[in-house]
Design a protein that fits this description.
2% of the residues lie in helices and 40% in strands. With 439 residues, the chain is mostly beta strands.
């Protein structure tokens, strides 16, 4: 263990297993108009297109509203003319396809038995599905993982908990599956056996499984974050944040190539993590400590053996517990959700961590569980009541609150994030799916 002075106020201790080769993260610049996974094609919360609705309300600007049966919180994903969500319906896990044109149900596929939820914000269907263009992959708290084609037919189906034991999470599953070129990846971080596993996308056969036991105490060993896939010279790597550690794995065989610990130096037993990391150039931005810290790791420097000097910057005066930051053009957008920071939108310089600007949303007891979306020249932030705040223009020196947009919905605990769909927006509340046109 080496000592690193991260700020004037605190000294942190970080452990490191150096990488064996140089890693260069690459954000996919060829992302299509589809929104194929939870944080979008580049996993950074950025939509393509320039013109998105900026104002709407319950009476205008909503193209359609459709009921989502059952109970679920997954963010929609989109391919072509269909949007996909998951839900627990009549005791069964369901993957439901909606027609983007009118909101009608195109089909639904049953994928195992719904385990329900423990937390008021949770369910058995909180992970988002992911799409590779031909098939949809859906994962549930029950351990069911399935590949379904665009007609709603099941291609293959397995259950991780039947194979490797029931999960030991204190709350409800939140980590979404992630795709590499050949596999679908699932990360299980919990008190007990933790691992990454890869299944062949076409056949469902297990390709590899890697243990991820890192020694985090009690609930701190549990994570609800989603891994990030990074490319280096045509080779894919997987970045995983959780259980007090950031780890890097080779996607072809799951081998752990690097580990950075010490995110919980005081060994707090209840540092479960929810917010996922996000990449910006050569940096991986990692919120942690229940929204109390953000750490930026320079992956090339980490790979070249510079040890803790690879930590480019550290902030312990802001953070995000549940919402994952968005990242674009060297800037990081953070949604504060703590008692004192609730609704504080911070734009940070990704290279230095310095604050460029801040916007305080209207003070409220309502918190934020969805993650922000950058669409056009604005930032979209949805609270747990389904109200979406639009902040911008982001190109301005001092962006401001543009609008506060409500939907006709009484359900609490909207946790799904807003997503783009052909320069409109999709917003999923606890009970409904909305397509927002602004017209």
């Amino acid at each position: 263990m080496l000592n690193l002075h991260l700020s004037a106020a605190k000294a942190r201790t970080y452990g490191l297993i150096a990488l064996a080769s140089t890693l260069t993260p690459l954000i996919n610049s060829n992302a299509s108009d589809s929104w194929n996974q939870w944080r979008g094609p580049a996993q950074n919360g950025v939509a393509m297109g320039e013109s998105y609705p900026e104002k709407w309300n319950a009476d205008s600007g909503i193209k359609w509203k459709s009921i989502v049966p059952g109970n679920g919180g997954s963010t929609p994903v989109v391919s072509s003319n269909l949007a996909f969500v998951t839900s627990g319906v009549d005791g069964k896990n369901q993957l439901i396809a909606y027609n983007l044109e009118n909101g009608s149900t195109a089909w639904s596929a049953e994928i195992g038995v719904d385990r329900g939820g423990k937390h008021k914000k949770g369910s058995g269907s909180n992970p988002s599905a992911v799409i590779d263009g031909e098939n949809i992959y859906a994962y549930f708290r029950s351990g069911d993982l399935a590949c379904v084609n665009m007609k709603g037919e099941t291609v293959w189906h397995t259950n991780l908990q039947n194979e490797f034991g029931e999960d030991t999470l204190w709350w409800d599953l939140g980590s979404s599956p992630t795709l590499t070129k050949d596999t679908v990846i699932v990360v299980v971080m919990q008190t007990g056996p933790s691992y990454l596993i890869a299944y062949d996308k076409n056949t469902g056969k297990q390709k590899w499984k890697t243990d991820r036991m890192v020694g985090a105490p009690e609930e701190a060993a549990q994570s609800y974050s989603t891994p990030v896939v990074i490319e280096q010279n045509g080779e894919e790597w997987i970045g995983v944040m959780g259980a007090d550690h950031f780890t890097l794995h080779r996607a072809s065989d799951g081998k752990e190539l690097g580990r950075l610990g010490g995110f919980n130096p005081e060994q707090n037993a209840y540092f479960r993590s929810i917010s996922s990391p996000v990449a910006s150039g050569n940096l991986m931005i990692c919120p942690y400590a229940r929204g109390a810290t953000i750490t930026a790791i320079h992956m090339q420097e980490l790979a070249s053996g510079k040890g803790e000097k690879a930590i480019r910057w550290f902030r312990d005066d802001l953070g995000s517990d549940v919402p994952t930051p968005a990242s674009k053009d060297g800037k990081i957008y953070v949604v504060g959700d703590g008692r004192t920071s609730r609704g504080l939108i911070s734009c940070l310089d990704a290279e230095t961590g310095t604050t460029i600007w801040e916007v305080q949303l209207p003070k409220s007891r309502i918190s934020f569980s969805s993650s922000p979306l950058i669409a056009g020249d604005h930032l979209y932030v949805t609270n747990e009541k389904g109200t979406t705040y639009v902040v911008g223009p982001l190109s301005a020196d001092e962006p401001a609150l543009v609008s506060e947009n409500m939907i006709d919905d009484e359900a609490d605990y909207t946790v799904a994030s807003p997503i783009p769909a052909n320069e409109t927006l999709l917003i999923r509340s606890k009970s409904n799916l909305y397509r927002i046109s602004g017209k």
